[in-house]
Amino acid sequence: QFAEAAFMILFYLFFMIIDSHRLPYRVKAALPAKASTHVLDVGRTIAAGIQQYMVVKTFVSLGLGVTSGIVMWLFGVDYWPLWAFVIFAANYI
C-alpha cells in the first residue's frame, strides 16, 4: 500500500510540474482579481524563500564537505574525497 501511495504522489507531482506554467491563469480564472493577486504574491514570496533557503543550504553543505575533506586529507584518511562527498550529501539531505 505504501508503494501505491508513493506512485500516486509521484504521478500527480509529475503532472503538476508539467502543467505549472498555466497555474497563474487558473488562479486568476478561479478567484476574484484582488484575491488572485494576493494568492499569486504569496506564492511568489514562498518560492523566493525556498530558493534562498536552497542556495544557503547548498553553500553550507559545500563548505562543510570541503572543510571536512581538507581536514581528512591532512590527517591521511583513506578515501577522503568519498567521505567529503558523503558529508556534503548527508548534510544537504
* Secondary structural class: mainly alpha
Tally of separate helices: 4
Radius of gyration, CA atoms, in whole angstroms: 21 Å
Mean pLDDT: 93
Gross morphology is: elongated
Largest sheet features: none
Unreliable sequence segments:
none
Distance between the termini: 25 Å
Beta-strand fraction estimate = under 5%
Reading the helices and strands in chain order gives HHHH
The proportion of residues forming helix, as a percent range, comes to over 70%
In total, the number of strands is 0
Assembly level: single chain
How would you describe this structure to a colleague?
- The protein is mainly α.
- The protein is 86% helix and 0% strand.
- The chain contains four helices and no strands.
- The longest helix is centred in the middle third of the chain and has 42 residues.
- The chain is elongated.
- The protein starts with a helix and ends with a helix.
Chart the SSEs and their pairings.
Blueprint: H1 2-18, H2 23-30, H3 33-74, H4 80-92
Helix pairs in contact: 2-3, 3-4
Can you give me a brief rundown of this structure?
By secondary structure, the protein is mainly α. It has helices spanning 2-18, 23-30, 33-74, 80-92. It is elongated.
Question: What labels describe this entry?
Answer:
4 helices, 86% helix, 93 residues, single chain
